[in-house]
Amino acid sequence: MSSTTATLRMNAKQGLNRADHAPQGLIGAPLDRKEGPLKVSGRAPYAYEHHPANVAFGYLVTATIARGKVNGYDFDAALAVPGVVAVIDAGKRTTTQAANTSSNPEQGNDHVTHYGQPLLMVVADTFEAAREAAAKVRVDYAPEEGGRFVLAEEAPKAKTPGYPFFNKANMNTGDFDGAFATAPVQVDATYTTPSQIHAAMEPHAATASWDEAEGKLTIHASYQMIGNVAAQLAKVLGIKADKIHLMSPYVGGGFGSKLGLNPESVMAAVAARALKRPVKIAITRQQLFGISGRRSDSIQRIRLGAEADGRILAIAHESLVSNRDGETFYEPAGISTPTLYAGENRLVSHRQAAMDLMISVSMRAPGEAIGMLALESAMDELAHTLGLDPVELRLRNEPDTDPQAGTPFSTRKLAKCLTQGAEAFGWAERKPQPGARREGDWLVGLGVAALSRNNYLSTSSARVRLTPAGTAEIETDHTDIGTGTYTILAQVAGDVLGLPMDAIEVRLGDSTLPKSSGSGGSWGAASGASSVLVAAEALIEQIAKRLGVEADQLTFKDGQVITGNRTMPLADAVGPEPLEAEGTIQSGAVQLTHTQVAYGAVFAEVAVNAVTGEIRVRRLDATLAAGRILNPKTARSQVLGGLIWGMSGALMEEAALDERRGVFVNHDLAEYHVPVNADAPAIDVTFLEEDDRYANPLGVKGIGELGICGSGAAIANAVFNATGVRVRDFPITLDKLLDGLPD
Amino acid sequence: MRPFTLTRAASPEEAVAETGARYIAGGTNLLDLMKLGIETPARLVDISRLPLNEVEEADGGLRIGSQVPNSDLAAHDLVRTRYPLLAEALLAGASGQLRNKATTGGNLLQRTRCYYFYDSALPCNKRDPGSGCGAIGGVNRIHAILGTSDKCIATHPSDMAVAMLALDAKVETLRPGGATRTLPLAELHRLPGDTPHIDTNLKPGELITAVVLPPPPPGRQLYRKVRDRASYAFALVSVAAAIEVADGRIASARLAFGGLAHKPWRNPDVEAALVGARPDDAAFRGAAAVLLAGAEGQGGNDFKIPLLRRTLVAALRDATEGTAR
Known about the structure:
heterodimer, A: alpha+beta, Aldehyde Oxidoreductase, domain 4, five-stranded mixed sheet, 19 helices, 32 strands, B: alpha+beta, Uridine Diphospho-n-acetylenolpyruvylglucosamine Reductase, domain 2, Enolase-like, domain 1, five-stranded antiparallel sheet, 11 helices, about 25% helix, Ald_Oxase/Xan_DH_a/b (chain A), AldOxase/xan_DH_Mopterin-bd_sf (chain A), iron ion binding (chain A)
């Protein structure tokens, strides 16, 4: 078998490539998901749906205090439950880890850092016995007073975090204080957002088997980034990474909660090794509210100083967020503020408070999701103060270059998104005066916000194999977390190699396959698809060599290879042995020389019941410019989910905290509210033509998070336009509107 | 989950003969509570296949078997045409899937949604008498403003029960030994007092066999539920109303309320304040003032007082709109 490797490092803008010719017409086509039929017919097994022989069932024992020491455990009653096999005490390994492996402090189970912390796992022959026994484990706590649960109270002790979301967490340009103080028009507003929980449909789950002879672990689990998690798990178990076979071919949502190693996998692995018996566990919905990680709560102060014509002179976004002691990850709420609007004098800062709550981790669009909610609300406040149309205000503050870094934008079509989106939405009908439009009991308002999400490329590898049958196989440890990875990788390979979709097999989510970017940060499509492009082009070089021609003389289409007047089946060109190439994409200099951001504009129409304050979103229109769209169908689905989640953050979502106990009390999907179908409005998604070859050779940008990066603010601004009530303490529930509604 | 035995009763008499057992039908609430270790019955008797699943006309009203699913009841012609507020209330509850499973009797007996009740590590006098009330001084946005005690501020979550209370429903039961009784729905549920762990006035082993609705009340009916999202959310407040206006005056008024108290709430003084009055905002506000006299917030739920006042006034406007007011 012939095998080559190829790497593309993004040190320069890329030109056209074979994928641009798209002989199969796959890229840009709204194709159905390759794995869709498996999922809807229940034939796509998820982590908990593997059934090795003699499997035992685990159930976690979790902390019922928020802060203190564990003096000891009493397992006697638990062990007496019929069917119980063992109580697993994993000691220091009982830890939830964020995506960045090195900096996570050990948590262990001899002290408690938050309510719901995993302590032990009971293993039994049945799930029911494990659960019953878990309830019978007695934990002798020594609770400690002084729990730190309320963010505002911890503000004085907050520190500047060190994790490199930016070059540094604080950025200062010009003279913000001076410029703000003398600005003719000022907005100074503080917004608060609560802790939120990912609440993926598929809970954290693992099925682990230990091969004693090989000293090897096989584990089916639910993760977004396979390679990192396998390495973390190897470290925890004290074995080499190649002794772990981790598989996550299907993931029922992750949203950041499955980026790093989670305790279900640690406990299942430790138990399987100790008991010499396969063990599976699914963390319950209630337990996830103490385990999955949370999006940090935040207090964000935004100050905007502007000329009377709306031009911003000074812009500041200061954020206070929280995490567990010793964690370096922080929620970068100000992440879009350096680049979004013009202005000479700028200040972006973050401080992090240590709290006795569950670890803070990435949750869909860490930073932008809550930061754009605040910033774009403040822009609306500025527009209202100025008496200026909110679209016009944004247009007047379009920067020519990145106003913080000074670098050019790779592409930026925010202005067109705003103007074209306004036209399509019927923005001209908006009445600038709040509360001016009433239909029966309903006050109707319109709102707008920009969408902005920084674009990333992450090192990613994929192997593409051409078989003697003339088909292709793609192998990478990349994941499809419901996003469409299977489909878009096949689309790219098909257009390069001239193969229809059904001639391409895609294997994902397996730690034995080439290491990918994984799914996170919206970089999955760009990184994974680029690596497939690089690999497929390398294969074409191999075929050219076999045929003794230059690659640029070859055309691949419909499973045929065409050169000059000669046409042959691809199978014949491949020959009797498979051809294989591993392609790798890496970020490079252009990520520094050009600021890369995906943009959009979202327009919202909401109705607020003048009697009760109930808010119903009637329409959401989003116009986005996010590079080439590989698959408009899966991309649109991503945008829909993002837009609705933004609505969720604006109107509903809150992990309700008992401030005395440090407990998120609404720990199930009946009481942790996210929008249901009846809440989802009519949504229109439009993608503008864009092609960003600074971003990657395919010209695509991430789309997975863009929808959430501002849609909440459009809705909040529409609520203000409907009612004249500005709620800065999210979510905007009806109780916060009542005082301001007509009597 | 504690091990339990499950038997299926062939007749109501056989069901009530199983002393010490809990009844299970749709299981939409009980099973969740068992999984969480909040309910720990050793024995369950499945009553879902008992012949108690008919809706029959009776004395100008309806007799609704306790095993009639919520979905079927909401869709029943006689319910939709004669008791539209009941159909509206049913359809405002839970989700389609839950309504398919949930039964009439089970709906009445569902337990509170108080957060503290659902976490066995937190104090709750309803779940664990004497452990305290976590909601008092805690997260109490969804809690009661009327009829509370210092032991419990939980609410009853049913929409259906509120509608039935406004309709003067009665509950028919069968007791161990074969005795039957009929009690007004108003007497089924209790206030928490010092015994919040006791939700109802049913005796041990007493089985609800039917709900009887008297002939529909005169006038216009409506059910208005205010909640945090458009579906699958419990009522923050709800109003069930049947109002008759004649000769420019309110001739009769039946009003029941959800989300306010440990039981579906009805206050005859509110109705008395309306009867004979002109259907105008002054009368509606007066009725709201009567209803809310003595209402007390717990911090997080203070908003329910103005919300209920506003919702009641608006509901009464809707119920009387177009009449000679």
